[in-house]
Amino acid sequence: MSTTITTVRGAAPALPEPPGPGRRTGAVLALARFEARELLQQVPILVFLFLYVGLTVARLAFQDGMSDYPVLNTVDRDTQTSPLLLAVALLVCTNAAALRSRKHGTVEQFDVMAMETWRRVLAHLLSAVPFAALTAVVVAAEFTREALKPGAIGHGSVAELAVGPLVVLMAGITGVLLARLVPTSFAPLLFVVATYLLIVLATGATESDEPGAGWLSPLVFSGISGGDPVPSDLLGRPAAWHALYLLGLCAVLTCAALLLSGGRTRAVKAATALALAVTAAGAIGQLPRDTDALEAARRTASTTPQKVQSCTEHGGSTYCSFPEWKGVRDDWAAVVDRIRSAAGGSAVTAPLTVRQRIDTSGGIEVDSALTPSTVPGQVTVGTRWGGNRVPEFAVGAATVLVAGTEDATTRTMCDARAVTIMWLVLGTDPTPMATFEDVRLDDSTTGSGQVLAPTNGLSLTAHQTEVVGELLARPRAEITARVKAHWSELTSARTSTAEAAKLLGVAVPQGVESCDE
């Protein structure tokens, strides 16, 4: 018995048409959204994202008095370091996502799919964008909260604020690129270590004689969370060029990943050329220019600040500051008026010149000691305000009202003047004992100690501290009346601490006062 096999010939089934550009773009975006959701479910990203947001919220929630007067040209740079936590996690996780098919042995299966390899890589690259956007939201929220404070000083830089989000985006892109260059899970760890060393070297380069090369690092820690702020025009930071440089680097790394994956289309090649041009422009723009003029401006602000400051008259005194600190002058005047209210004699109407000073001789934004002024009636104030800086300024102003000049504290005040100065500062303060602790270097209210001031501090003997404590325990109106009545004796270097106690009606300390304490 034979079997006949009949073959039916007909038209071959039509193959599906290649998807058009719109459908290909939609497929890439859909895959990018999927990969972004997958990244958000990764434990490292969840942990570091929570840590980043938590640290930002905690920093804003737990602030001291100086945070009521934020200097915005330092606030914008303070937003750059915290995103590094998220950046490292994103680098590791995007690398792992790009290596997922190799890890599970499914690379060959992608060959039968309509989407080319370079488009899948593009989707992985785009999956990092939402995390950069989230970083931008956190940065903007942090800066906006500080900028909206009534005491906010100066202005920030959009370019400085862009650094954090761009670093996060670059980290995600780099993770994908490393997966194409070195398809191993150890590559991200080695890259993070190498990048850390690069940033450290770059930070050192910015502080050396050749600072231009340091800005080729994605992030430069120099000038971040530093010492005393300075006016924006003295910073000399090429922030806009650096942001452009980072944007160009992100584009270059993206194009490199696409080219390595076979995406050698005209559009990708053109984008690569443009990205290289932008990166080169940003790098060249960061090279130091006119450094002599910048150094001269810093020197002028340090040695002759009156040339670049404006002044306001209030109550017979003059208040001079750099332009960005104009809004704080009223607060300075309020402190001076409060101190005057407890003074007597000519100090009630004596004209003062409150001048803001900085010292850039050892570099900008460093904690440097300002030399006491020898100009009669001149009071120094720094670039930080609020918190402990208020009573410290009060000490400086009271010193000038009592002794005439700031440099009087360079000589030992083992007499009634130190007691009088402290009474002017504390006797008009709403929380005198707490302020006494804050303004003392050792945070104590007993024994000898150093009282802080914007320039040279005031040394108190144990006897003077005891008399001040006795004064604060008595009715404020009573002591104020005695101070006004005996002003000439209390501001004389010939009046001892014991005599001051008698004049003010408090107990005389026992024993011999030691002026060498």
What does this structure look like?
The chain is mainly α and 517 residues long. The protein is built from 20 helices and six strands. It has helices spanning 21-40, 43-61, 72-78, 83-98, 100-103, 117-126, 129-147, 158-181, 187-206, 239-260, 266-285, 291-303, 329-340, 389-403, 416-426, 432-439, 462-473, 476-485, 487-490, 497-504, and strands at residues 310-314, 317-321, 353-356, 378-381, 449-451, 458-460. Helix 13 (329-340) packs across helix 14 (389-403). The termini are far apart.
Radius of gyration: 33 Å
What is the helix tally?
20
Order of helices and strands: HHHHHHHHHHHHEEHEEHHHEEHHHH
State the low-pLDDT regions, or none: 1-18
Overall shape: elongated
Distance between the termini: 126 Å
Helix fraction, binned, reads 40-55%
- Side by side, the strands of the main sheet go 1-2-3-4
Mean pLDDT: 87
Beta-strand content estimate: under 5%
Number of E-type strands: 6
Structural class: mainly alpha
In brief, what are we looking at here?
This protein is mainly alpha-helical and 517 residues long. The protein has helices spanning 21-40, 43-61, 72-78, 83-98, 100-103, 117-126, 129-147, 158-181, 187-206, 239-260, 266-285, 291-303, 329-340, 389-403, 416-426, 432-439, 462-473, 476-485, 487-490, 497-504; strands at 310-314, 317-321, 353-356, 378-381, 449-451, 458-460. Helix 1 (21-40) packs across helix 6 (117-126), helix 10 packs antiparallel against helix 11 and helix 13 (329-340) crosses helix 14.
